[in-house]
């Protein structure tokens, strides 16, 4: 099934303009959310805004937006003023420079989009893709959309292009900010650690091997509640002996089949009702109290 574009833009480098279509690089699973209900009768609760000064309930048409420039001091903006502050959405990806791909640290990447050629841009699109491949560089520039201006990079991916929305420099923290004490690494420990890594190594990352087991379990238990059944609990694992000695921990890990990946571990069994056991009866009539979203 072919992907559907979520927008269009013009990618410009030098005097060359490439009309492109933007596509999402993935589809996030809908988050499981729970609604707040009145414990007394199960009715949905509504959110209200209350004035912090007099406690009065404030309706939406009485609200204004303000910026706190000092503790408790605000400047108020009208909707028109806020609109005038927004960046004009030109949907133009303006390339400012081409830098070595390795120079764009992964901590800067916030989200990504696939770019495909739009009508009339096929030749220039392919030309840019091949040029980036041969030079080992990525295009870096800015993109204006949705009232904001973003810094982006465009890199080749197989026969296409991927645009990555980057964080600005003042939005990124450095690993240097993390307190990491200096500790000497002992050669025997390093040897065992390398063996452990090699034992649990794979030649390729296969994302299909990973599943959101928490989401799956929550959905299963929600269905049980809908059916009027009690939620079953996962049996708690027996506490494992804590190994303080690093060498002993490494040796124990190497003895474990599958290494650190844990791919051989079997999932815990669910607690099921025994035949003849009493089960809480489902309510005779149930009233729907809301969907899965807040």
Overall description:
- The structure is a single chain.
- The chain is extended.
- The chain has 5 helices and 11 strands.
- The two termini are 32 Å apart.
- With 294 residues, the chain is of the alpha+beta class.
- Helices cover 20% and strands 26% of the residues.
- A hairpin with a 2-residue loop joins β5 (65-70) and β6 (73-77).
- Among the domains are: 7-27 and 86-171, Ku70, Chain: A, Domain 2; 182-202 and 245-256, no CATH class.
Outline the fold blueprint.
Elements: E1 7-13, E2 16-24, E3 49-50, E4 57-58, E5 65-70, E6 73-77, H1 79-85, E7 92-100, E8 109-117, H2 122-135, E9 137-145, E10 148-157, E11 160-166, H3 187-199, H4 213-226, H5 246-255
Parallel strand pairs: 1-7
Antiparallel strand pairs: 1-2, 2-8, 3-4, 5-6, 7-9, 8-11, 9-10, 10-11
What key phrases describe this protein's structure?
26% strand; 11 strands; alpha+beta; Ku70, Chain: A, Domain 2; single chain
Q: How helical, in percent, are the residues?
A: 10-25%
Taken from the alpha-carbon principal axes, the silhouette is extended
- Which architecture of the domain at 7-27 and 86-171 would the CATH scheme give at its second level? Beta Barrel
CATH level 1 name of the domain at 7-27 and 86-171:
Mainly Beta
Order of helices and strands: EEEEEEHEEHEEEHHH
Tell me the strand order in the biggest sheet: 1-2-8-11-10-9-7
Mean pLDDT: 83
Total helices: the number is 5
According to DSSP, the number of beta strands is 11
Largest sheet: 7 strands, mixed, barrel
CATH topology of the domain at 7-27 and 86-171: Ku70, Chain: A, Domain 2
Report the radius of gyration as a whole number of Å: 28 Å
Which segments are poorly predicted (pLDDT under 50) over 5 or more consecutive residues? 259-294
Span between N and C termini? 32 Å
Question: Into which percentage range does the β-strand content fall?
Answer: 25-35%
Tell me the structural class.
alpha+beta
């Amino acid at each position: 099934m072919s992907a559907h574009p979520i927008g269009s833009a013009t990618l410009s480098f030098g005097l060359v303009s490439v009309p492109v279509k933007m596509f999402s690089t993935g589809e996030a699973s809908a988050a499981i959310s729970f609604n707040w209900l009145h414990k007394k009768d199960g009715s949905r609760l509504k959110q209200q805004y209350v004035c912090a000064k007099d406690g009065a309930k404030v309706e939406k048409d009485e609200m204004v937006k303000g910026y706190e420039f000092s503790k408790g001091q605000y400047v108020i903006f009208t909707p028109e003023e806020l609109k005038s502050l927004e960046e004009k959405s030109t949907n133009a990806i303006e390339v400012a420079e081409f830098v070595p791909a390795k120079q764009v640290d992964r901590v800067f990447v916030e989200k990504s989009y696939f770019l495909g050629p739009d009508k009339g841009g096929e030749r220039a699109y392919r030309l840019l893709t091949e040029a980036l491949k041969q030079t080992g560089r990525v295009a870096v520039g800015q993109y204006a959309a949705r009232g904001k201006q973003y810094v982006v990079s465009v890199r080749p991916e197989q026969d296409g292009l991927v645009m990555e929305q980057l964080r600005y420099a003042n939005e990124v923290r450095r690993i240097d900010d993390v307190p990491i004490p200096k500790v000497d690494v002992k050669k025997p420990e390093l040897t065992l650690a390398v063996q452990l890594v090699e034992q649990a190594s794979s030649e390729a990352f296969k994302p299909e091997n990973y599943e959101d087991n928490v989401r799956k379990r929550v959905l299963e238990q929600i269905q049980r509640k809908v059916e009027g059944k009690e939620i079953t609990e996962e049996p708690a694992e027996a506490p494992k002996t804590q190994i303080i000695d690093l060498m002993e921990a490494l040796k124990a890990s190497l003895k474990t089949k599958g290494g650190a990946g844990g791919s051989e571990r079997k999932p815990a069994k669910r607690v099921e009702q025994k035949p003849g056991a009493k089960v809480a009866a489902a309510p005779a009539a149930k009233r729907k109290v809301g969907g899965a979203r807040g």
